[in-house]
Design brief:
8 strands, eight-stranded parallel sheet, 9 helices, binds pyridoxal-5'-phosphate, alpha/beta
């Protein structure tokens, strides 16, 4: 079996019901095509420009996810086709997605990106900001965006206990928000945690989607 197909197969074996999202950033069209030939249909990019370029060169039945920071002025270009945006972190972005989605008569599935890692990052909401945003969302009429869950990244470290602690924090926030803000709605169901180095730990903490790049392509 070709290497990429074999990697996908090996990872899939461990996932059960958790969905594999192959992160194709920095990979060649040939490499992505190899993953596609192995049956993979869900891919993610972290930059809008790269996402648009790849989409144009690859088959139409690919589901594209955006996992990187999204500027409001780029929303319009991805809303017509995007399957999920994992990196939503402000009311302004939510309002923009909703407005553009309304124009396309679509409902765009989104995740709120939270911040659980110890290391410094510009992106993601801490617990207070998450609650604050959810309170504001309640007051809005948002018929064209669906908040489906939460995305988080753990600290880049070899310390498995620390990673487990951070994923556990993400899982408990997910459960709390599902109960308090989504009335246990089954459409609020995605917990996007886990990358190449830590997806097995994420699986122990309720991950429903893992975003894996290097473990597929290396
Ligand atoms: C790059 C990236 C990944 C995948 O990283 P790997 O270590 O290559 O699996 C997952 N999530 C986000 C947000 C990323 O930017």
């Amino acid at each position: 079996m070709p290497r990429i197909a074999e990697n996908i197969f090996t990872i899939q074996q461990k996932l059960g019901n958790c969905k594999l999202i192959v992160v194709s950033k920095y990979r060649s069209i040939d490499e992505i095509t190899e993953a596609y030939a192995a049956g993979q249909r869900t891919f993610a990019e972290n930059r809008v420009q790269a996402l648009l370029e790849r989409k144009a060169q690859l088959p139409n039945d690919i589901e594209w996810h955006l996992i990187g920071h999204l500027q409001t002025n780029k929303v319009k270009s991805i809303v017509p086709f995007i399957s999920m945006i994992h990196s939503v972190d402000s009311l302004k972005l939510i309002q923009t997605i909703n407005r553009e989605a309304e124009k396309c008569d679509k409902i765009v599935p989104c995740l709120l990106q939270i911040y659980v890692a110890k290391e410094e990052t510009k992106f993601g909401l801490d617990e207070g900001e998450l609650i604050d945003l959810l309170e504001k969302i309640k007051l809005e009429q948002l018929d064209h965006i669906r908040i489906c869950g939460i995305m988080a990244m753990a600290t880049f470290t070899d310390d498995k206990n620390q990673i487990a602690e951070e994923f556990s924090k993400a899982q408990s926030l997910f459960n709390q928000v599902k109960q308090e803000y989504f009335n246990l709605d089954t459409l609020f169901r995605e917990l996007s945690i886990g990358m190449s180095s830590d997806y097995e730990i994420a699986l122990d903490h309720g991950s429903t989607m893992v975003r894996v790049g290097s473990a597929v392509f290396n």
